[in-house]
Amino acid sequence: MTTQGPLRIVVLISGSGTNLQAMIDQIHRGDTPARIVAVISNKAEAYGLKRAEQAGIPAEVLSHRGYASREDYDRALQQLIDGYQPDLLVLAGFMRILTDAFTRHYQGRMINIHPSLLPRHKGLNTHQRVLEAGDPEHGCSVHYVTAELDGGPVILQASVPVEASDTPESLAQKVHEQEHRIYPRVIDWIARGRVRLEDDTVLFDNQPLTEQQRRYRAQN
């Protein structure tokens, strides 16, 4: 991906926006050559909208209610997004299943973060499912979005150990802390042209991403 000036980002949210805040903080420190040009939510009560307003970022609401179909909503959403001319579309707790036409439109330009070590535990309730499965570790994954739910190529993952005393709530807290570390990092990589998607392969510095590069380490 090549852009003129800072990477233009639109962020989609449905809730509190803690990952959005991590991105805002990193960009405002001057650590990443990027600019969040808009935050859009399908829910007017989403606290992430206030985070955007406090940071001087345009905040928009496009409720999915009142649209006859998922396709109709996604077409309206796409029109709103494209008005901001983004280089990258970032899903940060946007609780909508997107249509194939929408994902194709942003192919290679849309990323998401999922609370599991993909390909394990796609979908919802990942913390409870990890405990039920007896997994020794849990974590989160940043991936490119494709038509397959939580199935796009993974860019970066972070893991946390699962302790005998863990609950879904304690696991959620540990995973959130890792999300706030790795999501801004991936955005920085993309903004600097280090990461891009070519066909179905994630390239890092123009070479296929290795498994070692895909796992987050604090010293990197």
From TrEMBL:
Keyword Transferase (UniProt): yes
Chain residues that bind N(1)-(5-phospho-beta-D-ribosyl)glycinamide: G17, T18, N19
Enzyme Commission code(s) on record: 2.1.2.2
Annotated positions for site Raises pKa of active site His: D150
Domain of life per record: Bacteria
GO CC, one annotated term: cytosol
Keywords: Purine biosynthesis, Transferase
Reactions mediated catalytically: N(1)-(5-phospho-beta-D-ribosyl)glycinamide + (6R)-10-formyltetrahydrofolate = N(2)-formyl-N(1)-(5-phospho-beta-D-ribosyl)glycinamide + (6S)-5,6,7,8-tetrahydrofolate + H(+)
The protein's annotated pathway: Purine metabolism; IMP biosynthesis via de novo pathway; N(2)-formyl-N(1)-(5-phospho-D-ribosyl)glycinamide from N(1)-(5-phospho-D-ribosyl)glycinamide (10-formyl THF route): step 1/1
GO molecular function: phosphoribosylglycinamide formyltransferase activity
Binding-site residues for (6R)-10-formyltetrahydrofolate, renumbered to this chain: R70, M95, R96, I97, L98, N112
UniProt-listed GO biological process terms: 'de novo' IMP biosynthetic process
Enzyme superclass (EC): transferase
Keyword Amino-acid biosynthesis annotated: no
Active site: H114 (proton donor)
Domain Formyl transferase N-terminal: 8-187
Pfam families: Formyl_trans_N
Family statement drawn from the similarity comment of this UniProt entry: Belongs to the GART family.
Function field: Catalyzes the transfer of a formyl group from 10-formyltetrahydrofolate to 5-phospho-ribosyl-glycinamide (GAR), producing 5-phospho-ribosyl-N-formylglycinamide (FGAR) and tetrahydrofolate.
NCBIfam families linked to this entry: PurN
Protein name as catalogued: Phosphoribosylglycinamide formyltransferase
The gene coding this protein: purN
